[in-house]
Design a protein that fits this description.
This protein has three helices and twelve strands. Strands 1, 2, 3, 4, 5, 6, 7, 8, 9, 10, 11 and 12 form a twelve-stranded mixed β-sheet that branches. A hairpin with a 6-residue loop joins strand 2 and strand 3. The longest helix is centred in the N-terminal third of the chain and has 41 residues. The relative contact order is 0.09. The model has no long low-confidence stretch (mean pLDDT 87).
C-alpha cells in the first residue's frame, strides 16, 4: 500500500511541476530567448508582447510580434497573433506535425531603393561555393495542416518608380503543406484573396477528401504577363537580362496527400512564352 502511495504522490508532484513549468516558467523564458536571438540574427530590434503555452494540448500562442527596421524607427514586419497546435504524434514519428497553423494580422513594409536593393537585402544569404563532398543528410519531415493566414497587409514602396503598392485584407487558407506520408484531418478549404492597389482578387481551390487520400486543386489562369516588368523586383542578381517576354499559363495544380506514401504534386495544362529574349551580361 505504501508503495502505491509513493507512486501516486510522485505522479502528482510531477504533474504539478510539469504544469508550473509549462504554463508559467516556459513562456517568459521563450519570450526572452526569442527576442534576444532574433534581434541578434536579424540585426533589427525584435519585441514580443506575450507568449502562452499549453503543455498538455501542445499549443503555442504568440501575441504582438514586432520587428523594427535597422534604424529602430519604423516597423519592418509584425503580426497580431500566431497559434500553433502541435500533434502529439510528432514525438513518435520524429517529424514536425502541426494540426493547425493560424496567423492573424501579418504586416510587412518593403522598400525598394534607387540602387535596386531592398530594406531586407542584408538578410539574403550570400552564395557559397559548392563543396566537393557533401554528406547525405536524411530529410527533415514535416506536415503543417489547416493553414490560415488572415488580415494580412503589405506596404511596398518602389523607389526607382516612385510608386507605392498596397496589399490589404490578405487571406490565405491551405489544407496542408507536407513532405511525409500523413493523411490530414482537414477543415480548411484552399483560398487566396486580397485587395491589391484597391482592386479585389480571389483565387479559390477545391478539396476532394477520399478514403485514403486528400486532394487539393487550384486552377491558375494567367494572360499576357510582362516578364521583364516583374523580374525587375527580384532581389538577387540573375546574371542575365530579359529585355522582352510575355507569359500565358492555364494550369491545374493538384497536391495529393496519401495515407501510406509520400505526397504528390501534379501540374497539368499549357503555358506559352511569346516574344522572349534572353541575353547574358
Amino acid at each position: 500500500m505504501r508503495h502505491w502511495k509513493k507512486i501516486v504522490i510522485g505522479l502528482a508532484a510531477f504533474l504539478i511541476l510539469f504544469s508550473l513549468v509549462g504554463f508559467f516558467a516556459l513562456p517568459p523564458l521563450l519570450k526572452s530567448l526569442l527576442q534576444d536571438k532574433l534581434s541578434e540574427t536579424l540585426h533589427r530590434p525584435v519585441s514580443i508582447q506575450a507568449i502562452a503555452v499549453n503543455p498538455y494540448l501542445l499549443r503555442l500562442t504568440v501575441k504582438g510580434f514586432h520587428i523594427q527596421d535597422r534604424s529602430g524607427k519604423e516597423t519592418f514586419a509584425a503580426f497580431d497573433e500566431l497559434f500553433i497546435d502541435l500533434e502529439s504524434s510528432s514525438l513518435i514519428k520524429r517529424a514536425l506535425v502541426v494540426k493547425a497553423f493560424h496567423l492573424t494580422g501579418p504586416r510587412f513594409r518593403i522598400d525598394r531603393h534607387d540602387d535596386g536593393t531592398y530594406n531586407f537585402s542584408d538578410l539574403i544569404p550570400a552564395e557559397q561555393a559548392p563543396r566537393e563532398q557533401e554528406k547525405k543528410k536524411s530529410p527533415f519531415f514535416f506536415s503543417i495542416d489547416n493553414i490560415r493566414i488572415e488580415k494580412g497587409a503589405i506596404d511596398f514602396w518602389d523607389g526607382p518608380m516612385k510608386t507605392r503598392h498596397t496589399v490589404k485584407d490578405l487571406l490565405i487558407t491551405v489544407p496542408v503543406v507536407s513532405n511525409m506520408a500523413h493523411l490530414v484531418d482537414s477543415f480548411t478549404e484552399p483560398l487566396l484573396s486580397a485587395t491589391i492597389d484597391g482592386s479585389t482578387y480571389v483565387l479559390k481551390g477545391r478539396t476532394k477528401p477520399f478514403k485514403d487520400s486528400l486532394e487539393t486543386i487550384f486552377d491558375v489562369d494567367i494572360d499576357n504577363i510582362d516578364i521583364p516588368h516583374y523580374l525587375a523586383y527580384v532581389p538577387s542578381d540573375l546574371n542575365l537580362k530579359i529585355p522582352s517576354g510575355q507569359l500565358d499559363a492555364h494550369l491545374e495544380i493538384s497536391f495529393t496527400q496519401h495515407r501510406d506514401r509520400k505526397p504528390s504534386l501534379v501540374i497539368t495544362g499549357r503555358a506559352s512564352l511569346d516574344r522572349m529574349a534572353v541575353t547574358d551580361r
